[in-house]
């Protein structure tokens, strides 16, 4: 990285229906949400409970939309095995994946909102997928996944963040300033949400790496910021940025 980290983004749109052919304006709204969420300028950041305000972070990474690539298809759903990332399978290969964040907007199916590839994987499949319905601010997807936070969560994974519950009962996310969570949380838990993991403490249900409703997630932590920053330094898995 030379100075401030600005991530170039290419959005790959795969559509069969008009609704799947999401507009440039909706795509820009998603970039705007990401820019807010990764600079702690999202309007709900100030809802962070005082208990967690000291660790709530400005990640200080911004995103710039370089290109939107559109392709029509006859596929009704793409699944979660990377077919949308392969031109040979009817999808679209990523553009310059060592220096560009590729996003795919398509119908995933199976009730999946989106999925991401962690750093260190194959460049040919690198990037994040978010179902067309949940792409952008107030897309066609109904409440409670209508605020573009699926992308914030997926880009968190793409930058090496684990789920806050560590995908295990009272598991670890390898970040020390996020509290231990029993499991994934849904809806919008009311603070304080007391953990059943010991010793007694409150869970940080408003962290982007939990599974709450879009309006219930609005912060990353300093520890998560360090974990993200580490992949972009020389020798890191995304040093090309
Ligand atoms: N289930 C997805 C994943 O594990 C994303 C969940 C995003 N949550 C949300 N409120 N948009 O990557
Ligand atoms: Zn996730
Ligand atoms: Ca933790």
Architecture overview:
- This is Zinc metalloprotease.
- This protein is an alpha/beta fold and 241 residues long.
- It has helices at 24-37, 50-53, 149-158, 222-232, and strands at residues 5-15, 61-72, 101-106, 114-116, 128-131.
- The protein has a 5-stranded mixed sheet with strand order 2-1-3-5-4, with helices on one face.
- The chain starts with a strand and ends in a 9-residue tail after the last helix.
- Zinc ion (ZN) binds next to helix 3.
Helix content: 10-25%
Strand order of the largest sheet: 2-1-3-5-4
Choose one word for the global shape: globular
From the alpha carbons, calculate the radius of gyration and give it in angstroms: 17 Å
The end-to-end span amounts to 6 Å
Unreliable sequence segments: none
For the sheet with most strands, the description reads: 5 strands, mixed
Q: What order do the SSEs take from the amino end to the carboxyl end, as H and E?
A: EHHEEEEHH
Percent strand equals: 5-15%
Number of strands: 5
Mean of residue pLDDT? Answer: 97
Quickly count the helices: 4
Organism: Flavobacterium xylosi
GO molecular function: metallopeptidase activity
Protein name: Zinc metalloprotease
Family: Belongs to the peptidase M43B family.
């Amino acid at each position: 990285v030379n100075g401030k980290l600005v991530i170039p983004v290419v959005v790959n749109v795969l559509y069969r229906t008009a609704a799947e052919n999401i507009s440039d304006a909706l795509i820009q709204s998603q970039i705007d949400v990401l820019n807010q969420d990764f600079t702690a300028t999202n309007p709900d950041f100030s809802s962070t409970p005082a208990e967690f305000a000291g660790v709530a972070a400005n990640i200080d990474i911004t995103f710039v939309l370089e290109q939107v690539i559109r392709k029509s298809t006859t596929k009704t759903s793409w699944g979660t095995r990377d077919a949308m990332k392969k031109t040979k399978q009817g999808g679209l290969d990523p553009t310059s994946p060592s220096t560009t964040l590729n996003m795919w907007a398509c119908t995933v199916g199976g009730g999946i909102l989106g999925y991401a590839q962690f750093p260190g994987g194959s460049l040919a499949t690198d990037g994040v997928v978010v179902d067309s319905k949940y792409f952008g601010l107030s897309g066609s997807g109904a409440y409670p996944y209508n605020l573009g936070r699926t992308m914030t969560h997926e880009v968190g994974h793409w930058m090496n963040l684990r789920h806050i519950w560590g995908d295990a009962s009272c598991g670890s996310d390898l970040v020390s300033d996020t509290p231990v969570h029993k499991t994934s949380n849904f809806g919008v838990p009311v603070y304080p949400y007391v953990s059943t993991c010991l010793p007694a403490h409150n869970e940080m249900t408003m962290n982007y790496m939990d599974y709450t409703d879009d309006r219930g997630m609005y912060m990353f932590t300093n520890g998560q910021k360090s974990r993200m920053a580490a992949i972009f330094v020389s020798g890191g898995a995304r040093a090309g940025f």
